[in-house]
């Protein structure tokens, strides 16, 4: 076969790339006085990167907490639904079959996820409401503590030693009963273990990095990686925390994270959770960027992996790093599809 590298990339991406973490609803909400944001600002990059499905996260920033968490969450849904309805190119999907239909008809599938259960307050009944609105994957916390548990912090240790609260345990039980995927991204180490010991289905970590390369609680240790592997879960590799050092925040080092996870638990447990954030970060005034650095860390964006139009740079680098076609297709979409098929 006389296939060029470009042709090989095109073939490998033809069925679409799946990215399990994108802060789209938050940005649509901030731009709520504009119309057609999805088609005008996002679609060109999605198309350029052959994006087939995205986990789009409802996330409430500190400045809206505690009073406006629920309202802002509902407004994020409102904008996501309105923008999706205004375009032929997207579909909000609530089941595996719908994701398949979207892909077969050339639409980009959105799977609505929740990063932190703050919108629920302490009311388990609200979980049912958000399920009906389409939420199909939930991470209990972001970095901050909430009614469900504690987030892993952006330091090697120091989060509370406790696991979930009673409410957190109830949310986990109800998610399993309803058919909502439990996402272990961000939860502190004690919460991570507790969730695994009280659930039976394959767990996911939608967007994280390997602690061996960036040693903060927010990332995932080799022990934790093995626990996900034993349960046939999938870990999505994050693009913004690959190294504490800017000069090491490279596409090659991103691939090192993929390789490390695959070496520990096999290629069937690694996927993509890019967490592209540069487009939001660059809209912020310097004061907010400084606030982020003080609260968490300064994100180091990978120059040639900053937004969805760059996805083929990853495919090319996987080829250069001698990944097989079968393995590349598993990383780009196959492993996430296995999870969707099994759980949704
Ligand atoms: Zn996150």
Mean pLDDT: 96
Following the backbone from N to C, one meets helices and strands in this order, namely HEHHEHEHEHEHEHEHEHEHHHH
- The total count of strands amounts to 9
**How many H/I helical runs?**
14
Major sheet summary line? 6 strands, parallel
CA(first)-CA(last) distance: 38 Å
Rg to the nearest angstrom?
A: 19 Å
Task: Give me the secondary-structure topology.
Layout: H1 5-13, E1 17-22, H2 24-30, H3 37-48, E2 51-58, H4 69-85, E3 90-92, H5 96-104, E4 108-115, H6 125-132, E5 135-139, H7 166-178, E6 181-183, H8 189-198, E7 204-208, H9 222-230, E8 234-237, H10 251-265, E9 270-272, H11 278-281, H12 286-295, H13 311-320, H14 325-343
Parallel strand pairs: 1-2, 2-4, 3-4, 4-5, 5-6, 7-8, 8-9
Helix pairs in contact: 1-13, 2-4
Zinc ion binds next to loops.
């Amino acid at each position: 076969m006389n296939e060029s590298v470009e042709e090989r990339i095109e073939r490998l991406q033809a069925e679409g790339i799946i990215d399990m973490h994108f802060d789209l609803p938050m940005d649509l909400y901030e731009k709520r006085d504009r119309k057609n944001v999805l088609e005008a600002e996002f679609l060109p990059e999605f198309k350029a990167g052959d994006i087939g499905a995205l986990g789009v996260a409802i996330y409430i920033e500190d400045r809206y907490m505690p009073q406006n968490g629920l309202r802002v969450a509902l407004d994020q849904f409102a904008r996501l639904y309105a923008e999706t309805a205004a375009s032929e190119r997207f579909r909000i999907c609530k089941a595996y079959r719908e994701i398949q239909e979207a892909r077969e008809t050339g639409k980009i599938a959105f799977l609505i996820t929740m990063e932190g259960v703050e919108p629920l307050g302490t009311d388990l009944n609200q979980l049912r409401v958000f399920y009906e609105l389409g939420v199909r994957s939930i991470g209990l916390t972001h970095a901050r503590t909430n009614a469900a548990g504690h987030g892993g912090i952006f330091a090697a240790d120091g989060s509370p030693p406790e696991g979930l609260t009673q409410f957190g345990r109830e949310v986990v039980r109800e998610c399993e009963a309803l058919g909502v995927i439990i996402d272990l991204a961000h939860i502190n180490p004690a919460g991570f273990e507790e969730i695994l010991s009280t659930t039976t289905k394959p767990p996911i970590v939608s967007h994280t990095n390997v602690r061996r390369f960036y040693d903060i609680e927010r990332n995932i240790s080799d022990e934790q990686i093995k626990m996900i592997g034993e349960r046939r879960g999938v870990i999505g590799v994050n693009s913004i925390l690959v190294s504490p050092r800017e000069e090491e925040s490279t596409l090659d080092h991103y691939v090192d994270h993929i390789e490390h996870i695959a070496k520990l638990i096999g290629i069937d447990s690694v996927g993509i959770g890019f967490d592209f954030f540069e487009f939001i970060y660059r809209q912020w005034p310097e004061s907010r960027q400084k606030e982020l650095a003080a609260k968490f860390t300064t994100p180091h964006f990978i120059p040639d992996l900053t937004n969805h139009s760059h996805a083929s740079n990853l495919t090319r680098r996987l080829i250069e790093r001698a990944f097989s076609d079968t393995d590349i297709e598993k990383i780009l979409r196959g492993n996430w599809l296995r999870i969707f098929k099994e759980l949704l």
